[in-house]
Amino acid sequence: MSAAGTKTFAAVDLGASSGRVMTGRVGPDTLRLTEIHRFPNRPVHLPEGLRWDILGLYGGVLDGLRAAGPVDSLGIDSWAVDYGLLAADGSLLGNPVHYRDRRTEGVAEQVWATVPPDDLYRATGIQYAPFNTLYQLVAAQGTPQLNAARSLLLIPDLIAYWLTGEQGTELTNASTTQLIDAHTGDWNRPLADRLGIDLALFAPLRRPGDPAGTLLPAVQERTGLPGPVPVTAVGSHDTASAVAAVPAGRRERFAYLCTGTWSLAGLELDAPVTTGASRAANFTNELGIDGTVRFLRNIMGLWLLQECMRTWELTDVTPLLADAARMPALRYVVDAAAPEFLAPGDMPGRIAAACRATGGPVPRTPGEITRCVLDSLALAHRRAIREAQHLADREVDVVHLVGGGSRNALLCQLTADACGVPVLAGPAEAAALGNVLVQARAHGLPGDLASTRELIARTQPLTRYEPSGDPTAWKAAARRTEVARRLPA
Asked: Would you call 238 a catalytic residue per the annotation?
């Protein structure tokens, strides 16, 4: 299938706004990633709520595999927490609910009445987010779909099931459900029992690198792929795959930023941090490749700008970034992690309202609002990385910024300025690269996590941003967002 010493792997990488199928050619000194097919991921507003168009996504996956040509294996990663419910015959019981759907409003308080927040965090190490799978399942209790369900598959596992006919639950994604024990890496059955959640719905756990089946004959026929084609479990939470592709040196003290629709800012650790201070700071302990822990905070990310552009009916971000670069720095700032920015709809209006609430100037033009978003994201990155270092008692010398945001030079420079340490930006397609490299290790290409990162550093384009500007200006702006966090909702 490939030249001597190399193999070819397909990465199915499903993001919150688009999906893609990419192929990676991997050898001892070779790592070439090629985008084969990209397709939109457009959620659908139905009378009953916000839903994923999972059938459209699966069609895009098949189209991409058809265009990919022969591969040695394929792996699937996607966003976390969401799931599909299956009947006894394996058929899908409706389109999966979108994590931004409102059905979980008020559910957290219901859960905490049974399991106090401190107990929940010590047991799972997972941050509070209203859309965690745990809250979704409690919200779904008593519904006809959940009553009829005989199995539950997280999104990448659902796609794998349709491709192979085999069911499994990959661990890095399972850890985001808030039902995995942070210390044992297995289901927390006492917690699930207290909340009336039936863990028998979940298929057996898989770990990155485990076999996940072989393409069904009907799938081979539709895609034209010569078989047998194995499907390999990867870090199926896209952040797990992206962090695996951080091009850090073996002895480097680094923080990471996975930037896209969300910004995930944190550290890679050997053990979870489940202290009260960590819970209060809303840091999460998600499981990563090779037994690592992703100690991080979720920040709204470029979703803020994406939603603004949807309101403005703009598709080209380049003129907005050029306008933003000419705007005064740190004139307009908001708390980019604030919950009022979670739902879709009129993001420019909500950003203006947040600025108005702090008594500061209010951005009005698209360029001003774009600069507000980027400055605010850089401030949120600064706060998260500083707090992660304090909570984990770990210092960092460099920030690796991976994902789509690494193409945004202004955001990268502002992040370096805000954090006061160099930012090394790239690779942009980190999730797909991590996906491919886990497959490569599972299929005979040698190397540990450190050596695969060295391969990325040798073969992928990276850009270094040195901190500049006045650090005191960032400190003052950070104090303004602290005030915003103390204001009543």
From this structure: yes
